[in-house]
């Protein structure tokens, strides 16, 4: 397949690494130094593009699929441009908008769009959806996810691995959870629970807005996503905010 990787950051490079042997890849990004690095390391073609001001539809045309790895603030634009280009899209941006708002536009364009195609939301949704397809209505869906460094590095015990702004959004976006069959809005960072994992130590988990499409597509009596960090992380974040 001929695939355009839109965004050549850490996540985009991971996609390039995974797909490079079996597919023809082209990566588009604003940062020329980053593009030069990717050309040299992987021997792939690159395109310089500014997603904030450039039209993306012409860049997207001619590919079997686009892999979107831009920050969340560009997510909705990427979907709309994919519709205009008539190109299928798999997007892992953590967009603030409701992507179902463009469902009819996507259908009219005759393309397939897979939003929230990251780890969580993303892989977590696939796993829950698979279980739901086998067993039907579920009692409790308890998702816990967190990319942690190997050790609790001061001051926050965390290393940013994707868009810094999207990382901050985890602490500010209102959260939807399901309690006793009803969708409830919670504040991010609430619902903290503590636990211990051998080899890592004391951890905490708190509500984040990761259910997303599961709210609409999976029936469960109780359902929530919580992000895992080293214990004390959320207290420090609250001091900063």
In short:
By secondary structure, the protein is an alpha/beta fold.
Summarize the helices and strands and which ones pair or pack.
Layout: E1 2-6, H1 10-19, E2 24-29, H2 32-42, E3 45-48, H3 57-60, E4 65-68, H4 75-85, E5 88-91, H5 103-109, E6 113-114, H6 123-135, E7 138-145, H7 164-169, E8 175-179, E9 182-186, E10 193-197, E11 201-207, H8 213-217, E12 220-230, H9 233-240
Parallel strand pairs: 1-2, 1-4, 2-3, 4-5, 5-6, 7-12
Antiparallel strand pairs: 8-9, 10-11, 11-12
Helix pairs in contact: 4-5
Characterization of this structure:
With 241 residues, the chain is α/β, with parallel strands linked by helices. It folds into 2 domains: 2-114, NAD(P)-binding Rossmann-like Domain (Rossmann fold, 3-Layer(aba) Sandwich); 123-240, Dihydrodipicolinate Reductase, domain 2 (2-Layer Sandwich), CATH 3.30.360. It is built from 9 helices and 12 strands. It has helices at 10-19, 32-42, 57-60, 75-85, 103-109, 123-135, 164-169, 213-217, 233-240; strands at residues 2-6, 24-29, 45-48, 65-68, 88-91, 113-114, 138-145, 175-179, 182-186, 193-197, 201-207, 220-230. The strands form 3 sheets. Strands 3-2-1-4-5-6 form a 6-stranded parallel beta sheet, sandwiched between helices. β10 (193-197) and β11 (201-207) form a beta hairpin. α4 packs parallel to α5. The longest helix is centred in the middle third of the chain and has 13 residues, at 123-135. The radius of gyration is 19 Å and the shape is globular. The termini are far apart. 34% of the residues are buried. The mean pLDDT is 94.
């Amino acid at each position: 397949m001929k695939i355009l990787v839109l965004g050549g950051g850490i996540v985009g490079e991971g996609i390039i690494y995974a797909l490079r042997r079996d597919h023809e890849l082209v990566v588009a990004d604003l940062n020329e130094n980053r593009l030069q690095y990717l050309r040299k390391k992987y021997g792939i073609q690159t395109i310089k593009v500014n997603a904030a001001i450039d039209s993306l539809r012409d860049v997207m045309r001619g590919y079997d699929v686009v892999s979107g790895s831009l920050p969340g603030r560009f997510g909705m634009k990427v979907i709309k441009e994919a519709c205009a280009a008539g190109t299928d899209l798999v997007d892992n941006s953590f967009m603030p908008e409701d992507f179902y708002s463009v469902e009819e536009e996507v259908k009219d364009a005759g393309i397939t769009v897979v939003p929230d195609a990251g780890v969580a939301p993303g892989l977590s949704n696939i796993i829950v959806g698979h279980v739901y397809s086998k067993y039907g209505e579920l009692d409790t869906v308890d998702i816990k996810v967190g990319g942690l460094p190997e050790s609790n590095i001061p001051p926050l015990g965390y290393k940013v691995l994707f868009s810094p702004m999207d990382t901050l959004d985890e602490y500010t976006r209102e959260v939807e959870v399901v309690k006793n069959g009803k969708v409830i809005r919670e504040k991010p960072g609430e619902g903290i629970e503590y636990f211990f994992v051998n080899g890592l130590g004391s951890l905490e988990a708190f509500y984040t807005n990761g259910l997303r499409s599961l709210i609409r597509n999976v029936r469960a009596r109780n359902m929530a996503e919580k992000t895992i960090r080293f214990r004390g992380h959320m207290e420090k974040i609250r001091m900063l905010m």
